[in-house]
Each structure stands twice: as structure tokens, then as C-alpha cells.
Specification:
homodimer, 2 domains, 8-stranded parallel beta barrel, 39% helix, globular
């Protein structure tokens, strides 16, 4: 698959940071930044931009805050054509503290939002746009929030928002190819002036397959992470996506080397990937939080009971 | 997805046996047979029917031969509506030694064949059919063997063969959704009197996604294994397939319990699943044998060099 407009965004450090309180050391982050840059990926997302009034630096590592000077330490001396991205959550960032894009190493700000918060997301994206950043809105938990409310949100975005891409985020790892196709078509139908993005979760081993499906139906912004790292089941593996895309600008080899050197040892320390409780949460269209709690308990391998607990009673 | 004609075939012991010389102990095989039967799966494949003149019982476990009395030990006293299947390779079985189906615990014989051997496969399938067995032909390595030769083979099968289903076998884990769709449509177009089957390999985490794709386009015989066990990257995970299919006859819970009790400990002893050299073989449309050799060497994590060795020289 080759399409000039396709953009790959690596969110290894940002989504991977959800497993370890954003506490990767700077050497590791530089290794990721270097290898992913060499592989020809378009954007590299390093973390969240959160207010230090809301979160403690004692509790969270630097990628929870993404200060400009920390990002400068990452990129310093490394040749790269990739743009730097950060993510923001609604209500957790002091926009006044954020410099103009021209004075910052950050190129893009992605606003994560539920459908119900779309007014706030549009306002935030537009504020960052005014400061000179590229922006996206990433609509989370979309397997739950479909129907009229979503359609109205998309129309409002198309009318009012300056974001360049709007993402379908399969937070629960619950979409199949047909539901992915349906959503991409719906987004493209309404968002005439914007690109459509796709961010999969790998609960049911469908993150890569659904990303391919999204590409086939016209999504041009694609998220992936090295070796699929990310919260719970993780994400679409970057090495598979780069292996699939035929654009000659991509080179899988630096990613393969990075996995050997850094991610095989890391996987022994922190857990992500195809793990049955996350698969169960995905097939039941549930947030992974109960599965994550199970994995920290002494019942971590009691899959049948976990399934029965989710299906026999109301969970919310 | 609910379609009356859909049949699920569990090949846990057969394909899993390719990792350990078919040497599962009888207690383990009975646990698999019991749980998979309880889950409502239609066929359970226990191994290969090979001639003992060609393979030594000292070197291989009982599931390389699938003697009737061994299969009787598996099924004895376990309530089951599932039919028992075995696989045969061309030139490796003495058909004269095989009893009539009415005198055997085996219900189905599946003939594994490359396109080039399709004459022999048809003859074998017809011989087993005459003995009263249900039969299929499983066309291996199909990502390599497409084009006119495949089309002619399918026409010959439709004309001459009594097999009830013909399988697309993605031996190299190399198919994507579009290639899966194309093959299923081609098979259905020619094989008017037969069912189409799909057997995926999980090199690129697409075995489940491609199985869904095959279902969407009309394949009705679907292979899967518990926790995706199988040679190299393994197969479509049965728990995901059963979670996806909406036929009320299926029950995922016995499979979940089986994974907790038997497959989590087993995975610590033998290796299968998403492992980068198998992913590389899949994306390059190569047999996994070189990747399997790498995994047994001291360079097992040298992914970049492995990739370069496959792409810089001819490998066959």
C-alpha cells in the first residue's frame, strides 16, 4: 500500500508511558527517537502535556509533562525529519503556560476527547492552532459512543475546528474490520476538509488488521508503537505497519534493531500485549481497567471467573 | 456473525504437535478434547496419520500416527458432539492400513497438499471418501502458489474430488485482508459444490483478522487453536474466534479455563506466537524454517541481521 498522504505517528513513549507512569529514562527515549526517525516515520509522540499543578513530578516521570527543555534533550544532536507530537487531555493543561509553536520543539498537539466533551476539545484544538501548532482531535472510546451524538460531534468539528486530522480511537480494542470500515466511511463522509486517523488497541489481535482496514477506506493518519507497546494489550506494532506500507521512505531495519536491544529486555520488566483478560474486555466492549486490576491481583490467571464476573452482572 | 453453516475446527493438538514432535501426554490431550468439546466446536483434530515405516515411534509422539486405539483413549468417557479429524501428508500414509470409517473413532481426514501435488491429493481424498470418511483438501503455501496453476487445480478439484471442503492455508502468515478476500472469492467462484475453508498463521498478527475476512466473504470451515498454539507464530486463537461468532452453541468459558490451567504453564516450556523473526518471514512471504532455525541459535534476537540476510540474497 503506497499513498503519498499517509502519515505514520509513532506513540511508543506516549502510550507506553501509561504502563510505567511515564518514567522512561532519557537514554531510552533518545534511542527510540533515533531509531524511529531513521525508519522514516512522520511524527513521534513523546508524552502528555499536563499541568504540574494537577500531577506531582514525584509520582510521574517527565513524559507526563513534556517540558520543552526535556524534549530538547531528546532531540539534541539526532538527525530527524520527524515532527514531535504531544497529547493533551481536556482540563489537564494550562494553555497559558504553553509557548508559541515557533519557540517550542513541539510541532503537533493532539487533543484526546470523549464525544461528550467535543465542545471543549474543539476549543482546545483551536487554541493550540492559534499558537501555531498542528492539531488533531482523537475521539476515544468510539466503540461505545456511536450514533447521533457522534454524527453531531463530527459535523460540529467540520464546521468549527481547525484540527488537521480527526482520529478514531478504539480505546477498548473492540472494533472488527466491518465496524472500522463503517466508522472510517462515516468520518470521511462528514469531515470533508480534514484527514481521518486511526488508533487501534490490540486486545483481540486486531490493531494491525483494523489499521489496514482503515487505510483501505481512506484513513491517512496512522498510529503505531514499537513492538506494540502500550497500556494493557498495547497498540498496532510499528514494525508490522512499516513492513506493510510500500512507501520507499520507510525503513524497517532501525526498528528491528531497537526491538532487539531495548524492547525484548523491557518486556521482561513491564507487561503489555495479548493477555486473555484484555482480550475478554475487548470482546465485551469494556474499558480495560478491570482487566488491569485483575493482572495486579493474585487471581491474574483466573480467566473464566473474570469473564463470568463481567457477563453475569452489570459492571457500571 | 451467525451463519448456520459455519464450522469451527480446533487443530490445537495437530498444529501444536509440530512444536514438540507430537509428544503431548494423554492427560493433556484429554483436557483439550474435553474443554473444546464443551465449547461447542464442530471438529477436533488430534494429529497426523503417518506410516510407522517412514517415522520412528522413538522420535515422535503418538499424535504423529494417531492410531485408533490412542484416539479411543482420548475420547473415552468424555461427552462430545465434536467429530474427530486427522491430517495426512501426501506419500506419508499407508491407506491400506486405515480401517473403514465405521470401524474407526476418526470422522474426518484432511489432505494437506501443495498446488503442484493436487492430482495426488484428489486421489487420496477420494480414497478416504470411499472408506466413509469426511474429507477436505488443505492447499498449503497459497501465498506463493497463485495464478493459473491454482485456478486449474481448483477446477480439477471441483470436477474430480469428493472432498466436502477445500482450505486456503496461509502457511507463511503472509496474507492481508485484501489477498484473503481475493482468494476466498476465487475459490467460491470455482468450487460450486464445496465449502471453502481458511487456516491462518499468525506471523503478522493477522490470523484472526484474515479469518474474519474469510468468513465475511463466505468461507464456512474455520481453523483455530487454543491460545493460538502452533508451529512458529501459531494460528488463529480459538478463544477470539468463539468470542466473535454469535452462534449460541459456542461457549468460550471452557476454553478460558483450559488456557489458565494448561496453556499458560505450557507457554513457559515451548515457544510460539508473535516473535519478530516469524513476523519478518511473513512479511517477506517466506517459509518460517529459517526463522525457526534462528530461534534455536545463539543469535535468536538478532532481528536486523536476520532481515538483511533474507532481503540481501536469494534464499532458495
Amino acid at each position: 500500500m503506497y499513498r503519498e498522504q499517509l502519515k505514520v505517528l509513532d506513540c511508543t513513549i506516549r502510550d507506553g508511558g501509561l504502563i510505567n507512569n511515564h518514567d522512561f529514562d532519557i537514554k531510552f527515549v533518545r534511542e527510540v527517537y533515533r531509531a524511529v526517525s531513521q525508519s522514516g516515520v512522520d511524527y513521534i509522540e513523546l508524552g502528555y502535556k499536563n499541568s504540574k499543578k494537577l500531577f506531582s513530578e514525584k509520582e510521574y516521570g517527565p513524559w507526563k509533562f513534556c517540558d520543552d527543555d526535556v524534549i530538547n534533550q531528546v532531540v539534541d544532536g539526532i538527525e530527524s525529519d520527524a515532527k514531535v507530537s504531544v497529547m493533551v487531555d481536556i482540563g489537564r493543561v494550562d494553555i497559558a503556560d504553553v509557548k508559541l509553536a515557533k519557540d517550542s520543539p513541539i510541532d503537533m498537539v493532539r487533543v484526546a476527547s470523549y464525544v461528550k466533551d467535543i465542545d471543549k476539545a474543539i476549543a482546545m484544538a483551536n487554541d493550540f492552532h492559534k499558537k501555531g501548532y498542528e492539531t488533531t482531535i482523537n475521539i476515544m472510546a468510539i466503540s461505545r459512543d456511536q450514533g447521533l451524538e457522534l454524527t453531531q460531534a463530527l459535523h460540529q468539528i467540520e464546521k468549527e475546528c481547525e484540527a488537521k486530522a480527526i482520529y478514531i480511537v478504539d480505546s477498548f480494542g473492540s472494533l472488527y474490520q466491518e465496524s472500522t470500515e463503517d466508522l472510517v466511511k462515516q468520518f470521511k463522509d462528514i469531515l470533508k476538509t480534514k484527514e481521518v486517523g486511526f488508533h487501534g488497541h490490540n486486545n483481540q489481535q486486531l490493531a494491525f488488521g483494523n489499521t489496514i482496514e482503515a487505510i483501505i477506506h481512506g484513513a491517512n493518519f496512522l498510529d503505531a508503537t514499537v513492538y506494540g507497546i502500550g497500556r494493557a494489550a498495547g497498540n498496532c506494532p510499528l514494525e508490522l505497519l512499516v513492513g506493510f506500507l510500500k512507501n520507499p521512505k520507510f525503513d524497517i531495519r532501525p526498528i528491528l534493531e531497537l526491538i532487539s536491544k531495548e524492547f525484548i529486555p523491557l518486556r521482561d520488566k513491564i507487561e503489555w500485549g495479548y493477555i486473555i483478560p484484555y482480550a475478554i474486555a475487548g470482546m465485551l466492549n469494556e474499558h480495560p481497567k478491570l482487566a488491569m486490576a485483575l493482572r495486579k491481583s493474585e487471581h491474574k490467571e483466573n480467566y473464566r471467573e473474570f469473564y463470568e464476573s463481567l457477563t453475569s452482572t452489570e459492571t457500571e
